[in-house]
Design goal:
heterodimer; A: 405 residues; alpha/beta; 10 strands; 13% strand; disordered N terminus; B: 436 residues; Immunoglobulin-like; Rossmann fold; 3 domains; six-stranded mixed β-sheet; 14 helices
């Protein structure tokens, strides 16, 4: 313990207390932000809880219509799965499909086959283009919506005539079948009642039919008391003793026999083993990500080659095809080197009158005549690059000749 | 804190029991909960890093190219043994490229209450001071699954000195210096040389050296001997401006200048002259004055260690003024600069008369061997243009040198390898001629 007391500490990493001191401000800000977000979300929440649910008393629920139906002796039963809905189809039953668009294609087809010929009534609330073709074949939805929400009946359907104006404006439908087309908006109906072609064979009671409604408004609690909404809703839904209210839900999973994906086919051991492998990969990532101390910065020296300007000048000569300057530089350099060898002062190396005679004398006339020497050392610039290369070689040869003892 | 590869490996092996015996959340929990517990135990049982005590010792300087060993003593005052990986971090240029990781990392075990030493061997690649960065220690738990990690700051500085590669020339130059020493009067005769002693005439001596008065006093003919002047002042002026930053070969011009300056300083201090140093660009970077012959070389090397080229134009006027202030007596001023036309003509030439008025000036410049290679290039178009540009540059340098010589300045222009001996020869010639 003595060493600990004598040696000063050199630790540089922050203590837990320092970490807390540094981060508590940020942590506090985060907590405040989170609390604020939750509070605002709770206050401003306008989510439509229990929309179209006959048990919900919210503005967009449908408890009011269910209560009115119950007063008239119609029992309402909520189902959430396709199987229940199919089982409930029967001659004394009205099946209300609250949100047809939520069903898968296969479910829609299955529902249609179950309701066809059952002798009951099927009410479809605002089915989209795809849904209506499968649930009520022969009916097509127009892509353009109705402009007004409140429409006049304008048809012979007794229920519509009794109800008068109603909020059916929404999706508009057309059909080539024999059907009651009511509440038209720009010539296309927003309420269709299509008699079930198979129902004529069913014995006794009312014939089966399918009702397609362009909007869901008449069933909402807050719209039920407007115009003839309540009347229309009660007549459409109260024609049978039992009302089955089909609310599609998440638990309404498609038949597993139909859609078995890759993950259903492999043994579960593989799946869970892979999950454990993912955990191992995450741990390995943490292991590799933690480095042993940060990088060390360092000021780097400048790295400029001293010969850069000379190289740049060479490239400029080349680009500009400056053969005259290049030849002059080469000749001048050779003359400067030759002058001391032939006994001429360097100051007079660039005058032909003093250099050439001394050079000729030094070479004893072995290197051509004075004319060729003059052309080589003082001649005109070469005409092309090949001549320039040749000039450089000739100058070298001359210098070697002079230097030879 | 940090995980280890072992923990990740165990988690990966855990996928076998999860997959075979218990696919489900229970299996996942059965594998990972014990692993997490073991990690927590490991963390709790690992020796604490914060309480370790670290001290340094070892080399504080090294020549460029040599190695420096810095020792780190780790004391573990806790009651648990320390098994750790340690990284002694230094700037990247402290090691040859590619060897940083191997050189800086150590594995060490320190039993409880004991201390251990680890040695980090530096092999710096550049001149200057290297400051130790932090020491990071990763302390492993007994199972090797989890670690504690922390850093310590243990300051230490290793000064990397100029390599002084030209010292190989020193023996030959010293022998030339001894030749100048007054034993042979013929060789050293000059107007500035100092009278040393009288000795007997041997055939071959310069008859002008015969001292007739002394001859008259004794029976043999006596000649005077001379020795070179001593106690002269030499001021080495390093131009650290932008022209010294250009790289010649693999090192900046400044490094080549320093090498030559060191050889000259070593030679001059042996010859009995006083050597001062001034490094200047727009302000004084280093100034050494009044050192005795014994410690002039170490202090010079130390002062040069941290000199770096600055990317500014040298202020020639300020340079001349500072030089005159630093050289109150008649001195040999050795100016290490470049012979590029523009800086000399615009900067140095106007102020040169101030210097040459009282002092002898020697300009030493580092020539680029690459330019000489370019001047010899032949054979294809690019090569010939390069040769022309190089010839042009060389002739400009010669012209600048001639301009300087007309002011009575001695000019030495040589490649980095040649500059130190050439400069030493120029110094010896000046000395022999008595021009110091």
């Amino acid at each position: 313990m003595t060493t600990e007391a004598t040696l000063p500490t050199t630790a540089a990493s922050p203590t837990a207390r320092q970490v807390w001191t540094r981060t508590r401000g940020i942590a506090l800000a985060l907590v405040l932000l989170l609390v604020g977000a939750v509070a605002i979300a709770a206050v401003r929440s306008d989510a439509r809880h229990g929309e179209l649910d006959p048990r919900s008393a919210d503005p967009y629920g449908s408890r009011a219509v269910a209560e009115l139906l119950a007063d008239r002796g119609v029992s309402t039963r909520v189902v959430t799965t396709l199987d229940e809905a199919r089982a409930a189809a029967g001659p004394d039953t009205t099946l209300l499909v609250a949100v047809p668009d939520l069903l898968t294609e296969r479910q829609q087809t299955g529902l249609h086959s179950a309701t066809t010929g059952s002798g009951g009534r099927t009410v479809l609330l605002a089915p989209g283009g795809g849904a209506v073709e499968r649930l009520a074949p022969g009916v097509t939805a127009d892509p353009a919506l109705s402009l007004d929400s409140t429409l006049a009946p304008a048809c012979d359907l007794p229920a519509a005539r009794r109800a008068g104006n109603a909020d059916t404006g929404g999706i508009r439908y057309s059909t080539h079948l024999e059907a009651d087309a009511c509440y038209p908006s720009r010539r296309l109906a927003t309420l269709l009642r299509i008699p079930d072609p198979a129902a004529e064979a069913s014995p006794g009671g009312l014939p089966g039919d399918t009702v397609v409604l362009g909007a869901r408004d008449i069933l909402f609690n807050n719209h039920l008391d407007e115009h003839g909404n309540a009347s229309l809703a009660l007549q459409l839904l109260g024609s049978r003793d039992h009302l089955v209210w089909y609310l599609p839900s998440l638990s309404d999973v498609p038949d597993p026999d139909d859609e078995r994906g890759f993950f259903d086919l492999i043994p579960s051991g593989w799946l869970w083993g892979t999950l454990q492998l993912f955990i191992a990969a995450a741990l390995a990532a943490l292991w590799r990500a933690r480095r042993l101390g940060p990088l060390v910065p360092e000021k780097l020296p400048v790295a400029i080659r001293a010969s850069e300007t000379v190289e740049g000048r060479a490239r400029l000569y080349r680009k500009a095809n400056a053969r005259d300057r290049a030849a002059a530089a080469l000749r001048s350099a050779t003359r400067t080197r030759l002058a001391p060898l032939t006994g001429v002062p360097v100051s007079q190396a660039h005058t032909p009158e003093s250099l050439l005679p001394a050079l000729s004398a030094h070479l004893h006339g072995t290197h051509g005549d004075g004319q060729s020497l003059h052309a080589l050392l003082f001649g005109p610039p070469p005409g092309d690059d090949a001549a320039l290369i040749a000039l450089a070689d000739q100058l070298d040869a001359l210098e070697r000749e002079v230097r030879r003892p | 804190m940090a995980l280890t590869g072992r923990a990740a490996l165990i988690a990966a092996l855990g996928s076998v029991p999860v997959g075979i015996w218990d696919p489900g959340w229970t299996g996942i929990l059965a594998v990972n909960a014990p692993l997490a517990a073991a990690c927590a135990c490991d963390f709790a049982l690992a020796a604490p890093v914060r309480r370790l005590r670290l001290t340094r010792s070892g080399d504080t300087s090294a020549r460029l190219g040599d190695t420096a060993d810095v020792t780190l003593t780790v004391t573990n005052p806790s009651g648990r043994p320390l098994r750790a990986r340690l990284r002694d971090a230094w700037p990247p240029s402290s090691w040859q490229a590619g060897t940083e990781t191997a050189s800086s990392r150590h594995t060490l075990t320190v039993p409880a209450g004991e201390r251990r030493r680890v040695t980090t061997r530096l092999r710096p690649t550049r001149r200057g001071d290297r400051h130790a960065d932090r020491v990071t220690i990763r302390s492993y738990g007994p199972l090797g699954l989890f670690t504690r990690q922390g850093t310590h700051r243990v300051p230490w500085t290793v000064r990397v000195l100029p390599p002084f590669t030209s010292r190989k020339h020193l023996p030959s130059k010293l022998s030339r210096l001894r030749e100048l020493d007054g034993r042979t009067s013929v060789l050293t005769r000059g107007e500035g040389t100092e009278f040393d002693s009288l000795r007997e005439y041997v055939p071959g001596d310069d008859t002008r050296s015969i001292d007739w008065r002394a001859t008259a006093r004794q029976s043999t003919v006596a000649v005077r001997t001379w020795r070179p002047e001593r106690d002269r002042h030499i001021l080495l002026v390093l131009d650290t401006g932008r022209t010294s930053a250009g790289r010649v070969g693999d090192a900046p011009r400044l490094d080549a200048s320093m090498d030559a300056a060191l050889l000259l300083a070593a030679l001059a201090s042996r010859a009995g002259d006083r050597v001062d140093l001034l490094a200047y660009d727009r302000r004084v970077r280093a100034l050494l004055q009044g050192r005795t012959a014994g410690d002039v070389l170490p202090t010079l090397v130390n002062a040069m260690a941290n000199l770096e080229p600055e990317l500014v134009e040298t202020d020639a006027r300020g340079l001349a003024a500072t030089t005159l202030r630093s050289a109150p007596r008649r001195s040999l001023i050795v100016l290490f600069t470049t012979l590029d036309a523009a800086p000399i003509e615009e900067g140095l030439l106007p102020v040169l008369p101030q210097l040459t008025q009282r002092h002898t000036v020697l300009v030493a410049s580092v020539a680029d061997p690459h330019v000489a290679r370019m001047a010899r290039a032949r054979g294809h178009t690019d090569a010939v243009y390069e040769a022309a540009a190089a010839a042009q540059a060389q002739s400009e340098r010669r012209r600048t040198a001639d301009q300087l010589r007309r002011h009575g300045v001695t000019v030495v222009d040589a490649t980095p390898d040649e500059l130190p001996p050439t400069l030493a020869d120029a110094y010896l010639e000046l000395k022999a001629a008595g021009r110091l």
